[in-house]
Specification:
heterodimer, A: Heat Shock Protein 90, five-stranded antiparallel sheet, about 35% helix, globular, B: about 220 residues, mainly alpha
Chain lengths: ~130, ~220
């Protein structure tokens, strides 16, 4: 499975997020990620999907490598997302706080794709 | 109340009685009145409308989720919730999907589907005490332990953090432990005295409630602006 990419395009409304969860969960299960790690990744995915307000659809690209799973979501309103990610963490449950808690890494590119990373090693945590 | 009735009428064709929706919308109106600040120079009706609509939409979302889950998936979810607890203790870590599937004697895909369906199953009563759903079944997770939390969360979060005011005490506590203290789901489950799957559901539900609340506030601000 390593090196493969799965691309899923769904309407951005919340009920369709379930489809993204199932695909993400299926891929993550094959990597032997724990229930807790998969749940964390889905929490991150939901937080990002919620912000995909630029048009009626959103795409999720899943990639597996030797280190774990990467889920890139886009296109996102890049300026808004960047502002959220650069804002100092306060007492709100902001996007930055959610991502820094539940995934091992994230990166926003110039085109508005936000990539989430969860490492296989995370299964040993907690 | 004529405003509530007018807004409720928009949603009355979706299988709910108009009077029920008016009652639900009235809750949104009451919340709006509680928060309304006359000094902001905006009409109460302008401020209340997104609150009323938000309350009605929340009802449809919750109700829709709670009745769509097939019984077989509900039962598998109950089983998985118990297995998750047992395997976490046995393995000393959160189990993988294949480990859950093997213990439940089902496929990985069935586990994933049951977990996904189960996350929405009890969204009407996630953070209340032991209660039963419309079909008379006890929430599987609420039966696993409801020891009162010993951890005291600072209530000022409810005042300062956007959206936190719509959460109850347990929801605030769990979000605080997860996103501010950095505890894992299993650590929170142990500390609060509920199952790990219940913690998972409460986190998702709480984040949804915060997002809904912030969206309502943003709409109200946009109308004012």
């Amino acid at each position: 499975m390593t090196g493969d990419e799965i691309t899923l395009t769904i309407p951005r409304e919340a009920p369709f997020h379930e489809i993204a969860h199932l695909v993400l969960g299926g891929v993550a299960a094959r990597l032997d990620l724990s229930f807790e790690s998969i749940d964390d990744l889905e929490t991150a995915l939901d937080a990002v999907l919620e912000r995909a307000k630029t048009n009626g659809q959103v795409t999720v690209r899943l990639r597996v490598d030797d280190h774990g799973i990467r889920a890139a979501v886009g296109p996102l309103p890049v300026d808004d997302i960047r502002a959220e990610l650069e804002r100092e963490m306060d007492e709100s449950v902001s996007l930055r706080r959610i991502l820094e808690t539940v995934v091992d890494g994230y990166e926003l590119d110039r085109e508005g794709w936000l990539e989430l990373r969860k490492n296989v090693e995370s299964r040993e945590d907690g | 109340m004529s405003l509530v009735r007018s807004l409720a009428r928009r949603y009355a064709y979706r299988g709910e009685q108009l009077e029920d929706l008016v009652q639900i919308g009235a809750i949104g109106l009451i919340k709006a009145i509680d928060r309304f600040d006359i000094n902001r120079g905006v009409e109460l009706t302008t401020y209340a409308t997104p609150n009323i609509i938000g309350e009605i939409k929340r009802h449809f979302r919750d109700r829709g989720w709670s009745v769509r889950v097939p019984r077989g998936l509900q039962e598998l979810n109950i089983q998985l919730s118990r297995l998750l607890e047992e395997l976490t203790v046995t393995l000393g870590r959160s189990p993988t999907i294949p480990e859950l599937a093997k213990a439940a004697e089902v496929s990985d895909e069935e586990v994933l589907e049951a977990l996904e369906s189960g996350r929405a199953y009890t969204s009407l009563s996630l953070s209340v005490g032991a209660s039963s759903d419309e079909e008379g079944e006890l929430d599987p997770l609420e039966s696993l332990g409801t020891e009162e939390p010993r951890y005291e969360i600072s209530e000022h979060l409810a005042m300062l953090a956007p959206g936190f005011r719509v959460l109850d005490q347990r929801e605030r506590q769990i979000l605080h432990l997860r996103f501010f203290e950095g505890l894992t789901q299993s650590q929170i489950a142990q500390q609060v005295g509920i199952s790990q799957m219940h913690v998972s559901r409460l986190i998702r539900r709480s984040l949804e409630k915060i997002r809904d609340e912030i969206a309502v506030d943003e709409k109200a601000s946009a109308r004012r602006g």
